[in-house]
Amino acid sequence: MSDAHESHSTELVAADEPIANPGLPEHTWRPTDVDPAKERRAEIQVSVLFMLSAVCTVLFCVSYFVFDIKDNWSTVGGLGASTVALGLSLAGALLFVGIGIIQWARKLMGDHEIVEMRHSAGSNESERASALADLATGIEETGIARRPLVRNTLLGSLALLGVPMILGLRDLGPLPGDKLYHTIWGEGTDEHPMRIVRDGIWTPILASDLEVGDLVNCQPDALMNPERYGIDPSEVEGTNAQIVKSKASLILHRMNPADIKPGVDAEGNSRANWDVNGIVAYSKICTHVGCPISLNERTTHHLLCPCHQSTFDLSDSGKVVFGPAGRPLPQLPITVDDEGYLVAQRDFDEPVGPSFWERDYYER
Known about the structure:
Blueprint: H1 3-15, H2 31-34, H3 36-66, H4 81-107, H5 125-142, H6 148-160, H7 162-168, E1 196-198, E2 215-220, H8 238-248, E3 250-254, E4 279-283, E5 295-297, E6 302-304, E7 311-313, E8 319-322, E9 331-332, E10 334-336, E11 342-344
Antiparallel strand pairs: 1-2, 2-3, 3-4, 4-9, 5-6, 6-7, 7-8, 10-11
């Protein structure tokens, strides 16, 4: 072996060992490392910061319910009481827990230099064991096991920080209650059953006017004539009108009565009387993600959703024959009134639109 090669090998071996004195200044111990009184005082300071974080979190929750979002008494920048209270309390909760962790690290956690040798490949078993030992040492040096006050106040403040996030979910919108289960089709009376009208022109539909193969987009007459059905007009105005219309959107399709395969309703009763001489009514809202449907295959009575190609068989209780939809289209039982106009017998017997957790399903 040449002298140059031996010299290079010696340098490599030497590089594997730590430098005895890398030139760092002598370590200076912190006051909390040498004075138990100052250590205890620092521990109390950190715990107080964590408790202040918890107090701010509680204030956030109180402010959320106490201050109305419409309260707009003048503040800096013209912000309302709710905005200021929620912003300051949440900022304080995050700020105090952050400062507490920083002070904990600066004053109470281990404070000495550690040398770690680098390796070029995966660690062997002894190195892995050493790493776990170092981890245990690090946890020990944080003092979390022997400082229950710091540990418990930290865990308490962090646990409470989840509460504002949960409360914030309420601002995604009002809770629907049972509104998803009902539409305005059920608002008709014995004297005035809910008429089905053409969408856009709002004219009632005579059963005799529809021919085999026709597909008509429809809405409830109550959107234009709420008083006729004893409905407060404010319930079908502005935003409310859009909500009512989106849930009540309907399609009528006429086919040969012999093509219809009556299913059963939620109570197991036959749907044989749900159509009028081959005219069937279904929700226009796809049960996949709520797209409006109107693409009709006239000869097969299949209705295709343009969004994701879910296909429903209108001759067979709206069952899914293709695509990602997981439920049939809800069917509306219909009949005719004394003047021959199409009307709803009652509301849908299941929620319209996409699936949700609480929604039940029954075979048809």
